Amino acid sequence: MSMETTITSLVAAANKLTSAVNGKVAEIDASVVAAVRAIPEMSRSFYVDAVSGNDLALGSVEAPLKSIKEAMGRSNTTPYVTIYLKAAQTHEYAAPTDQTPYWSISNKLIFMMYGTGSKPVFSPKVGEYMPGSSNIHFLSLEGGSVYFRFVDVVMPTVLKAGTSGWYSFASSLFHRAHGPSASVQGSVTFSGSRLTLGAVNVFYSGYSANYRVEFTYSIVDAELSTKLAELSGATMVLSVFASSITQNKTWAHLVSGLVKDSGGSLSNLLSNVGNVVAAGV
Q1: Rounded to an integer, what distance in angstroms lies between the CA atom of residue 83 and that of residue 271?
Q2: What is the domain count for the chain?
Q3: Are 8 and 63 part of one and the same domain?
């Protein structure tokens, strides 16, 4: 075999090998892209404008959504979610339907303000889970956390038209969705917010629950109600920093269902204002 023939054969073999490698590289690249696309988004942000938004929009600051409901539906399985609410607006919080009046929270969910003006208002929807009875659309804490930062929360005070009372299920903003066998646990933070109490509690499960609640630079408005928490069957860790209650009320006025042990200490509430609460029980 001549030298020229040998060289030609070697070049042909090298070209074949290069083609095979390039093909494998393309396959590897395609596999990597597919694997990356299969990884769920770890965080998402949505902007909500209750006046000018559109629930068919992208949810960006330039093209905001119209409702919290749409933002929740798009991000309920995302580990870290921030929903920005347009300033100087009231934003209705609504679950999928009156018959499914809650979103399950196993992730970190933050409500924040964007734009200029007064703080946005987070207002739970009043629905009708059972005919003739009102309930509110709620958040079912299932290991997750909810953070209101410079967002005011106003609890409902009026029954839905045509109903005659509040139904026991879905009778608080943080409630139990799945019956007595399920666990309710998670944390809720109010920071720079005003929480206006209303006709139903903010925290109540009806069964066992474990809440961690923090108020930082916040105000609890107790002019119309003192219904913050009903702890029957539940426990709460309550942290209060630089926060106050209106109407000369104390934390003892806002928490019911408390249990004292034989030594007079609270057994289902741990708090840096625990002495104040215990003294009022």
Answers
A1: 29
A2: 2
A3: no
Q: Which two tokens stand for residue 9?
A: 């054969």
What is the reported pTM?
0.86
The pLDDT-based confidence of 166 (bands split at 50, 70, 90) is very high
Q: Are residues 74 and 178 in the same domain?
A: yes
Same domain, 15 and 118: no
Say how far apart CA 208 and CA 233 lie, in whole Å: 5
Q: pLDDT digits over 184-224, tens only?
A: 899 999 999 999 999 999 999 877 889 999 999 999 999 99
Angstrom CA distances, 113 to 12, 42, 85, 242, stand at 66, 21, 5, 21
What tokens does 241 get?
A: 């920093």
Angle at 271 between CA 269 and CA 276, to 5 degrees: 95
- Which parts of 39-137 fold into alpha helices (H)? 68-75
Tokens linked to 231:
């702890």
* Same domain assignment for residues 35 and 70: no
Domain of residue 19, residue span: 1-39
Residues 177, 180, 181, CA angle at the centre, nearest 5°? 95
